Fold these 4 entries.
Entry 1:
Amino acid sequence: MNEASLLLLTIFLPLAGALLMWQVGRFGQHAARSFALLVTVATFGLTAVVVVGFPGGSDAYAVTNVAWVGGEAGSTLDIRLNVGLDGLGVWMFGLSALLMVTSVLVSWEAIRDRAGLFYGMLLLLEFGCLGVFAARDIMLFYVFFEFTLIPLFFLIGIWGSEDRRYAAMKFFIFTLAGSVLTFLGLIAIVLWDYYHAGNGVLRFSIPDLVASLQIHPIQPISWQVLIFVALFAGFAIKVPLFPVHTWLPLAHVQAPTAGSVILAGILLKIGTYGFVRFSIPMLPDAAVIAMPWVLWLAVLGIVYGALVALAQTDMKRLIAYSSVSHLGFCMLGLFAFNPLGLQGGTLQMVSHGLSTGGLFAVVGMLYERYHTREIRELGGLAKRVPWLAFFMLIFTFSSIGLPGLNGFVGEVMVLIGMFQRAWTAAPEASQTSLRIVSVLAVTGVVLGAWYMLWLVQRVFFGPLKEPNHHAGNARDHDQPVQDIGWREFFALAPLVVFIVWIGLQPDVFLSRMGPTLEQVAETTKEQLSRVR
Amino acid sequence: MYVDLETIKLLWPELILVLLASWIYIGGTVQQSRLWWTLFSLAGYLVAGYAVFSGEALLWSGANAGDAYVGSGPLAVDYLGYVMRLFAIGIGFLFALIASSAARRELASELLATLMLLAAGLMLVARANDLVFLFVSLELVSIPTYVLLYLGRRDRATSEAAVKYFFLSILSSGMLLYGITMLYGIAGTTIISGADDSIQAAMLGGSSLVELAPIALILILAGLGFKITAVPFHFYAPDVYQGATNANAGLLAVAPKIAGVLALIRLVVVAMPTVSDYAWQLTIVLALLTMTLGNVCALWQQNIRRMLAYSSIAHAGYMLIGISVALATNGSHGGVSATLFYLIVYAFGSLGTFAALVSLSSEQREISTLEELAGLGKTRPLAAAAIAVCMFSLAGIPPLAGFWGKLTLFSSAVGLALDPESSSLTFWFVLLALGGAVNAAIAAAYYLRVVAALYFQSSKIAITAGGRHTASLAMGFSALVVIAVGVLPRSVMSETERAEAVSAQSRLAIQRAVNVDQIAVTAISAVGQIPAPQD
């Protein structure tokens, strides 16, 4: 089997699993979760084969390109089932498959009600996530992009906490409101290309459009800015950038653990991914014009997210705000427009997925044990659940960027990239402003260490404090809670493997994404030199 | 009007339906079996469908088939007519299934026969090429609708709804007729496909009647606006839907809309594309008002039929996007195709929802509020899944049919805005596309409320009804169509694209106008007003 059909199989396997779940789910919770585990592990195995086979370089790998909507003789419409992996998508693709296994394992005991539907939705979500990062057709991307809303809507709405209904609606409508504007923007890109460069064919292929828009950039610039703003609406809400982040803490707090893991780990990255995939290479002039604005929003998000995280009393909420802060770092790196910043930002996307995915999983495990996420009700848990505390510490260190772990690599590259941009290659007009942004961003690192370590200190160290009513042992509620078992170990351990691996050998990952991202950086070079 | 044997032949499918309907009316007095008449009418639709297919399939197969062939005077033999007739038969088939569940036993035969007449009316609208013929066909849709509204249920609310609909419909027919007579007065012909030529000739000939053209346009838009529930002619819809039964509300949401949109295409896009320069501005304003008002009002509704009424208003607004594009471009840029595609997609989404409501209701209790839907995801998983699919499709979420409807509409508007040849229109159509996008987000809010009720709440009221299998069949079929068109949209889209050729006639007409020009100029120059051209 060649790599192209393997990739196709990887993407569609979860869909097949979700459809089969309709029947498997009838045999009860255990059948459903076992089957879901089987499918996600198989998908992860296939993903591993595909990702390991990725040779690097700037060309896409494992490309399948068949007609889907249109493409017959006499039709101008030609939306294709065009999938493949390149340096930008490959690691997010792998991360999606990895976090899905974790998601199934953390839901193992927690989800009892309508388990078949739950795991079916989870597999549909996996299908959507894998598709988003593999899509090479602009409409196919959008189809997957919006499709992910449906399963997560159900995951939050059915299996969430008290306020789940409101959270699910707010999440859906916020995201949709932005993404319909993105939709208009994408259509506008395709049609502009059609009228000015297309020779009478509507082109939907992303690489073709990028290449064509290099030669015939969208003119006048006001159009480009308008389309950039349209794309920005959807992607910024998804990231989420300050001030459109308000849906995120709510969705995170209300979502079941698996939902939070996927939301923070994968879905937020679709926003940042969209910027690198579409906004920067397709609309370089507008991106350069928007750079100072976006950077300011990013840094405001970093500082604001960190300060708000400091004030939180709910663990999940705290981590949700830390996501706002960390995604700000991603955006900072991406909008530095230099290879270092772009690579750092993209690596930070993966790193954040691993660390925050892990943190949400740990909080979910604590919640299963104590039925609370309130920080003040807990304390000294390292004595009670030492292994859980160990994992919590690793994820925390990864999150705050301890050297030797993955978070450090991304953060440092982002900051160096940003400083490079601000001090050596800033546009004249915004030089001071960019320097302020870079310095402010550093405070985010400090604040990040503060709120995360403080959280760990309060919850896991000091005198032991447990709420009176806790789940305890599954059979006996008076027994003390138990440390993690093998199931939970296997949910968290793979994340730690990658956290350490990226931390120690970042080059393995960077070298494969490098060429693609250098091309992206190349697209804005000319525009940047012009404004200087 | 000259009618030859050829015309009769072309009308076979409609004649079959009318004859069978009469047969059911008569036979229904003797034989009252619901099952028997259901099977009979379903078979009737199949026969009519086969007649359409066998009568015209040859005409449209092959690469050299003329998609816009217009023949036989009052009948437009074109691809639009062909596709929409098949669609009308499909809609009739599904409504027969729904009606068979919803009807009281003693009324089943009458209901089915009336529906059949309505389907025949829709088919005739689809291929009318004559002003009088079109008007009569529209009445053949309206009159059975009045009857069906009365047959639905016997209580105050239903009677009120039926009376309201009846009087307003009559009023709108009157306006439409007034507009049509003016159009006839200007054009001097009742043939729709030839009207544009005649109007242009009249314009160039300096006929003072041409000044009536804007009034004719507005009257026609008003009359048809009522049928498609465009603001400000929408106000009856919420009350009427709420008062009607679920089955009838579904019918109102689909049938008049098909008739209205088809008539709009024939009467406005084909017959009077060059009459006034502001026609498209008018429809843009109508489109923006209609979708915004529909969506915003739907947000607050608790009664599900009332909510769906506002939703159907909003969707009329979306369809007007395509009509505006068609009007502004004399039928190019995919405006007609997008409208037709959206119409089909909307019809199945809407029909599936109402069919599900019918299948969940029983004779004793009609499902009317959102609370009654609570928890059905657990107790009635199939019906809940079907409603959820239809809701997501109506909200335009991929990969369901509604998404492709939005794609075609938005890309027709954005395409026009970006076309370098029509830069003067850019602002308006960007505005229109933005309006559509913002509305898509607003609309999601109330569609999601339905899904949230189905899945996120526990049931408060036990729903016991379960015997309405034919409605469930219609529901399942519609939901499957919505999914199938979502996965393979091209199956329908390529048909509507071919059907758009109907408006190519008007483009041809403009080219022909050059010749008309010559004649007119000669005529005028004879009077000595302007000098003859130099060539």
Entry 2:
Amino acid sequence: MPSEEEFDAIVVGAGPGGVSAALTMARGGLSVVLFERGERPGVKNVMGGVMYGRMLADVVPEFWKTAPMERVVVDERLWLVTAESAVTAGHKHVPHDAGPPNAFTVLRVPFDGWFAQQAEAAGVLLVSGTTVEDVLVDGERVVGVRTGRADGDLRASLVVIADGANSFLVQKAGLGRSLEPNEMALVVKEIIVLPPEVIEERFTLDPGMGATIEVYGVVTRGMAGYGFIYTNRGSLSVGIGALISQFMATRITPWDLLESFKAHPMVAPLLRGGVVREYLAHAIPEGGFRTMPRLFDDGVMVVGDAAMMVNNLHREGSNLAMAAGRMAGETAIQAKRIGDWSARTLAQYRELLEASFVLQDLRKYARLPDLVERRPDLLQLYPELLSEAIHEMLTVDGASKREKQRRILRRLLDRRPWWRILHDAYEGWRAMK
Amino acid sequence: MKIEEKLFLLRWKHDKRSHISITNPRVCLEVCGTAWKRPCTTFCPANVYAWDGEKIAVSHDNCVECTSCVLGCPYRNIDWKLPRGGFGIEWQHG
């Protein structure tokens, strides 16, 4: 083993965070190896399906001309459902012609394949089919990685950990503790194939345009989580998830939960006639800001899901990963320039994150995971109350509107005394302010 | 749609060597059954874990690598390692 570093940087994991870091460093003149445990980038990767344009454009300008996007999201809907009703809200817009789309749906196998190609084109050496099992440490400093290959040690000035949710390397590098089952969600989804015209008609979309629906309420059967329906070009991504701790406690199987979500009377008509093409499962970090590992140390930085960078309330994750990857890359370029890869230089990564939406948003919602975990009933009760109230007002049965208001208020206070409602509102506000 | 039918849609590159093992089978037999009713047999989305009356039978070939069992075993009794490079689940869409 030669003692001098063979590469400037090793990146572990070819997802949005790792590729963004690798691409940024390669463009800055650094020599970069990108390890991916899948046979090729993408085949191990899953997400709900919404990606954001701005952070990708910061890494690949004009990506929309070549990236395998499914549909441009122009219609975002929120459903609060009971067993037999739904209160719906949403926002639609006409997309602008120039510049990156705000949000678009993707399937990760083609998308990540494309993204990694951009990194390769910039000079990154991609090594697929290779699992990184450990970091190499010299004293206190991370100096490389141990892969599963024969003679699989590789040294570099920097290791970027981007191995995704439930990162083993974060623990091996001593940057974070093992997570708890209430800090991670398990999400299952299906790819359900339908002709593009049927999707466009059913969701009232122009060709190429897409819709997203997030579904809260009874569908998670009392667990903290939500269901979703996202439109792809010729398929729907239909999924649902909840905290692992709540799957443990309720003994609801993930596939039953998904089947009952698909059978919900508001959901089923959208899926009718569709053919299930793939069934997927993945973990999503839920613990938020308070469960983040240390983000850097001598010779190492952590980006994306591996660093718990997920804003669940706004279903953002890959964009945080891409922004963090780019910032880690920029920090590495600076480290190379001054020839110092110690924590003192890499601290700039944290400063860049602090100055950006990444840590500002994660900090803003730091209290939310605790509330969601303690009070999953809130996601059931209030949708129900709201739905009943609206149902009452819309039902023309001869009762006066004032009488209906009285009924609604009575039903509300029967279920929950006014001081508890105030307390719930306060807790909700505090967790999101 | 049953779980067997869902799993039938998937593709893996199977490794004869299992990446999953139960650290101490006595914990499943003597402790977890009464205290937790062996939650791995219900939360695992790929039905990898089944109770055969004496021990947890592990169908590692079904694993979709979500890592839930690493956190979800109440006794941290499942030794789950990343499959060797190139092996394991291979999503077609993602």
Entry 3:
Amino acid sequence: MSKLARQILEVLKTLAPDSVKQIIEKGLLRALVILVVVTVVLPPAIVLLAAYWLKALGGIDNKAVTAFRSAYLEVIEDGFSIEEVATRSNVRLDYFQLFEYDLSPRQMPVKELRLSLEPRQKAAIQLRTVTFKALDATCSLPEAEADVELVTVSLGDRPIRTLRQDSDATIDIGRPWWRDNADQFGDDDLVQRLSFRLTQRAREILTCGSVHLEGSVQVFKDLLTGE
Amino acid sequence: MRTPALVLIVSLIVPMHQPTFAAGWWSLEDRRMFPGSGGSTVRVSVVTIDLRQANLRGVSVPFAARSSVGSTELSVRGLAQALLKQPRYRGKEWILVNGGFSSYRVDVPLGLLVVDGKVYSTLSKEKTRRTQEVSGSDYSQLRWSGVLCQRTATSNWEIVPAARYTPGSCRHALQAGPVPIEPISRMAIGSSEPKLEKPYVRTVICIASESRIKVATTRDATHLLPMAIWMSRPEASGGLGCRAALNLSGDSSSGVVINGAKSPTLIGEGSFPLPTALVFEAK
């Protein structure tokens, strides 16, 4: 060992925590290094090497290599449960529905979406777009009152949120919501209506055009128990 | 004696390198260039309009094409063809420029659109993205930060901060963004923009003076920073002398159609559908 290497080792020894110093004093440094390499360095290095070779093999146009690569990938996918991890986030989803409506005071002030939601069933309503829309060239939107509450969202007969323009909201029908509202529904009642209704103020100010509404409903399989 | 000779030589040489077409109220410099990021050169066409002799207005693409919202997919090219069939535009000189951005449908505007006092779409108040480097001024509060506005009171065209827009203040208004140059000739794009954003083919509208508007349409993809630096530079230094500028929709929607004395000329691609456009016409 060169003089410089010895000096660096001395510096490291000085800087090392007490527990490491004790291991060195007992002459167990080599065992410590082996332990660190085996438990910390090798696992990610092996994965990195495997990824490198799989990528390299993917570029070779040879049936035997392709078959070997596929078999190897299958073992890895099974072993690491990659499919399971990928689908886990959706496994609890019962159904998902997109909606898009144009509400106008005269033609369609209310729109109802049919649901099948049991009491205490977990759901989420996401609103991405709530905006005024002029439908013809003669229409001028009430921009001075663009900040008023435009649409009331109700589940069954229960209003759950009122939306203004540019609302980007997620309404979580989770445990807290059911705790506060479960008494509105009988144990055997299916909640079958999600409705969007123009507010009285919106009906007054919207002499032309419509309110465009876009979003989605996610209903999960989870039935939340009461507290 | 030297100066007139120099002017004569320059006036002969410059048109050879920068083809210029003019028709009283507008002129086109078709082969301008500016240095882009990373040492590239960006080719750009510049249309200059004299507002003493021309009118500008924003239009809703579906309404200008006499259709209803949600039913059209017209690009600058398509809209120009539709306008050519209408008596109002047939046989006249006009310039059509791509407008702002689309909302949930390609022909529904994102943010404010006021046409001749009629509000077709209200102001978008979406906040500036966190990744954007902002100047801290009123122009950096909202993502679609500028409104090209013809003041109701004075009829002057300005680029006003969307965050300070007040209903009824503009006879014509179009919201877009970002605002690369704030009044007066202040750079509003952060120095890190070329690292954070992708380059695009762009259309940027610039107010050079009360009576002069310029529309710069690039032929190559560019970041906003080098374009803003070039546009804000005085004309005498090779820039455009912009006091304020607003970035309009870009990429394949970017395009200008000049319906001059001869057949219509298209600058840029102008092939992607768009919700709004700007129309210049002789007074």
Entry 4:
Amino acid sequence: MTAMGLAPVITAVVWRDLTLALRRRSDVLTTLFFFVIVVSLFPLGVGGQSNVLRNIAPGVVWVAALLASMLALVRLFASDFDDGTLEQAALSPQPLVLLVAAKVFAHWLVSGLPLVLVAPLLGLQFDLPVGALGAMTLALLLGTPCLSLIGAIGAALTLGVRGAGGLLALLVLPLYIPVLIFGAGAVSATVSGISASGQLSVLGAFLLIALVLGPWASAAALRIALE
Amino acid sequence: MLEAVGLECVRGQRRLFQGLSFDLAGGQMLWVLGPNGSGKTSLLRLLCGLLRPEAGSVLWKGVDVRRSPETFHADLLYLGHAPAVKEDLSSRENLYFGLAQMGIGVTPREADLALGEFGLSSRELTPARALSQGQRRRAALARLAFGADRPLWILDEPFTALDAQAVHLVMSHLAQQRTRGGCVVFTSHQEVDLAGHAVKRVQLAQ
């Protein structure tokens, strides 16, 4: 028996959430398949004109990513809240803010990162050039952690509320708008042959702000939910 | 060491208690009694700092527990109404991750020894989903085996769903905590055999 420092505790929290995700693979796969299917429906519905597809691709991929991330959010704190794990986290000698950050990171690994990895493949259906595929992947890599961090605030605020899913969507989707605009903008710019570095920098800035404020606001909301 | 001064608790529209004061020295136990809905769990959550008291304060070693929570939490072992046991994790994983979140690191061997002591040997790898209610409580209570350097134990209904042998085991851990000079606060509906223990009682009214 030894006292654990901050880093091992954080690692344990991430490891626990990844283990749980692995035991409940269906939850993870639902998010991923939802994303794949929604994105794939558009080329089928719109038809084969590649110039139309190329123009709508950025928006379609990003909106699908937003909705898929909503799908996973509801579960972020709910089971911890129900089984008492969250109470224990609030009483940990380590700051709750960092435990929340660890949870959000694990959540992103299982619900955000798969979207980033599969997106280039989906982009092929829209006849996107290779450069645009790269920009899209990079934009999603910067944008999906923002979605998880912002979404965590909403998930914490709606904890224990009846009909939390619908309320969560109403609360969080408007906050996703800036990420959507610059994320889709980055891809559109590359499609029309302009550099996406401006949009990507803004997404990077969003990520930094979300990293600082997200866990802190979520932790505050969780403490209120526990009262 | 633990001191409550003029505590008042309001949940919703109901005032559960007011003007509640007591203090607990090292080596003492506090048994919180009262009918259902009298605010026993709320009192324990107030003592942990999870709830904010309507009036009054809770002091640990003279410092308000909500003032410097991280130092207070390093002294605290809390087992709540919900056992914080994950259905999809095995008993060993539950014990390991549960303790890790409290800042206590254990090796798989130490975890298995504690689980064995709590009657879960050969159940180390069973998911909690497949355990009975009492076994789940035991898996949660196995954390007590690693609570030696936590001077304050706050236990919500630790004897629920336990058989006589397990109740005896928990009692022996409480006795060890007392001889170490630690404090124990607990609630229980069951009549427990506390002969030979210095037990204070707080009775909450309906």
